[in-house]
Amino acid sequence: MDLQGKVAILTGGARIGQVVARDLAARGCALAVTFRESRKAAETTVAAARAQGVAAEALQVDLREEKQVAALVEKTNERFGRIDILLNMASTYASVPFSRLGSKTWSDAVDVDARGSFLLAVKAAPHMKRAGAGRIINVSDWLPVSGRPRYPGYALYYVAKAAVQALTEALALELAPEILVNAIAPGPIVPPDDLSKEDDDKVIAATPLRRWGGAEEIAKAVRFLIETDFVTGECIRVDGGRHLY
Questions:
Q1: Nearest one of 136, 141, 126 to 188, comparing CA atoms
Q2: What is the DSSP string of the chain?
Q3: How many CB atoms lie within 10 A of CB 195?
Q4: Whole-structure pTM value
Q5: What is the C-alpha to C-alpha distance for residues 218 and 238, in angstroms, rounded to an integer?
Q6: HSE of 107 in the Cβ direction (CA atoms, 13 Å)?
Q7: Which of 20, 52, 232, 237 is geometrically suited to a Cys-Cys bond with 180, CB 3.0 to 4.6 A?
């Protein structure tokens, strides 16, 4: 798929999402960037896209609410006239001790990562089908894709991202041949702002390529999965070989 003149919905327009958005805009893709609370980050992303000559808009939505998701998709189609690409990048990442696990913490973790991706795909797919082509790209994580729940306290995050992988595979079958559905499973891409030197050294030592990847590596993977015409149902690890250790 050629990006020129296409329209993408991108959830999670901060940090890595900003780099992905800038890369798509540079290739002529218009953007609907969603946010729930981070309006400033989304508006910064939109401003950068517009500076590259494409239409872009920041739209507030709670991905846990089906009516809001449906309204987002319809508003995007009305504003831009089409929907070609869906990038489900919004995510929650928080440690929850086992003693605090319950229905609320389950919903907090799973609804944004998995349910939100599911709802957006269901609402956006008919527009892509009518156009005869589309791309849906989800974001999982290298841990569940590798079958390794390595870190205590992140059970719900692990489950949510494993669900994203399963959703990707199932939707790829359901939506073929018009829509290609794939996922990206990042590893050490961008270090947290509060990461200690000791923990940073541990990450690098456990990554065969001995560095953090940088957000540009996710943008490259997104671009590949948009441009390819014969890859679907895949979950590509972008982790510098982290899963090998």
A1: 141
A2: ---TT-EEEEE--STHHHHHHHHHHHTT-EEEEEESS-HHHHHHHHHHHHHTT--EEEEE--TT-HHHHHHHHHHHHHHHS---EEEE---------GGG-SHHHHHHHHIIIIIHHHHHHHHHHHHHHHHT-EEEEEE--HHHHTT---STT-HHHHHHHHHHHHHHHHHHHHHTTTEEEEEEEE-S-S--TT--HHHHHHHHHTSTT-S---HHHHHHHHHHHHH-SS--S-EEEESTTGGG-
A3: 13
A4: 0.95
A5: 7
A6: 5
A7: 232
Q: Is residue 187 within 8 Å of residue 145, measured between CB atoms?
A: no
Backbone dihedral angles phi then psi of residue 29, each to the nearest 5 degrees: -95, 125
Q: What is the end-to-end Cα distance of the chain in Å, rounded?
A: 35
Burial label for 100, CB within 10 Å (0-12, 13-18, 19+), is exposed
pLDDT at 20 over 90: yes
Domains and CATH numbers, the chain: 7-244 (3.40.50.720)
pLDDT tops 90 at residue 7: yes
Q: How many CB atoms lie within 10 A of CB 27?
A: 15
Q: Is the pLDDT of residue 108 over 90?
A: no
> Position of tokens 């696990």?
101
Residue 184 tokens read as: 């990206």
Banded pLDDT at 174 (limits 50, 70, 90): very high
Q: Which of 93, 154, 157, 158 does the annotation list as catalytic?
A: 157
Which is nearest to 156 in space by CA: 168, 143, 167, 146?
143
Give the per-residue pLDDT at 111. 87
Q: Say whether 157 is catalytic.
A: yes
CA 87 from centre of chain = 5
